[in-house]
Design brief:
Elements lengths: L9 E6 L3 H12 L4 E4 L23 E2 L4 H9 L4 E3 L6 E4 L4 E4 L9 E3 L4 H9 L6 E2 L4 E7 L2 E6 L2 E11 L2 H4 L10 E3 L14 H7 E5 L2
Parallel strand pairs: 1-2, 1-11, 2-8
Antiparallel strand pairs: 3-7, 4-7, 5-6, 9-10, 10-11, 11-13, 12-13
Helix pairs in contact: 1-3
The chain binds flavin-adenine dinucleotide.
Length: about 210
Amino acid sequence: MSAPAMPDLFDAVVIGAGIAGLSVTAALADSGLEVLCLEARDRVGGRMLSSDDGSLDLGATWLWPGEHRARQLAGRLAIGILKQRIDGDALYEDAAAVHRLRGNPIGAPAYRYANGAQSLATALAATLPAGMIRLRAPASTISRDGRSLRVGAAGVEARATHVVLAVPPSLAGDERPLRAGAARSPDPVGAGHAGMDGRGQQGRRAVRECVLA
Ligand SMILES: Cc1cc2nc3c(=O)[nH]c(=O)nc-3n(C[C@H](O)[C@H](O)[C@H](O)COP(=O)(O)OP(=O)(O)OC[C@H]3O[C@@H](n4cnc5c(N)ncnc54)[C@H](O)[C@@H]3O)c2cc1C
């Protein structure tokens, strides 16, 4: 089946399909807006990466008491939450030896996603209409195009009235790979960054919206 035709002008192009980009894409799509999400890799989830069987988390692993939006999102997507076992001693290994610390040095109850943290991202992506996420599409340019913005990515050229950068802060702050010809508002879509609310400050900095001045 061929991909649906791209609209001439999107309301928003979201760059990055980590949990922030997916959350923003879903929120905007739920509002009835035309959205396109571009992801550089061949998978969604970004730093939420789990082994294929979901038993090992290779990036984000735990959620903590008070992270209500992450829990709500998991609940909405029917993702199970497990209590992290914290009784017993903690072990860690350095170059010299394996060390044993008495008790749990973190001292707070933690929780894990039953099928790995990446399942949150893949389940959220599965709620989006076909074609809304483009994988293997690293965005490389954002330029002005009259009263809209033009985003260039591998194999994709899209026009939009808004662009959301949902990439890590180190990339969002680097003007070289993504040249935005538009003003950046400070945190216009922070509420859309619902995925990892306990780490919201870091994520929020990663989310910038390019708007026409
Ligand atoms: C080892 C590790 C352990 C962690 N443990 C925890 C934890 O236990 N609990 C917790 O809450 N958090 C944890 N974190 C942090 C958590 O993973 C991140 O805060 C969260 O996943 C960030 O999500 P994000 O969507 O903002 O960014 P990312 O997940 O980094 O997503 C950004 C996406 O943008 C894509 N991208 C980048 N450049 C482009 C481009 N030019 N064009 C298109 N796409 C692009 C990337 O491929 C990526 O998919 C951990 C992180 C790591 C690395």
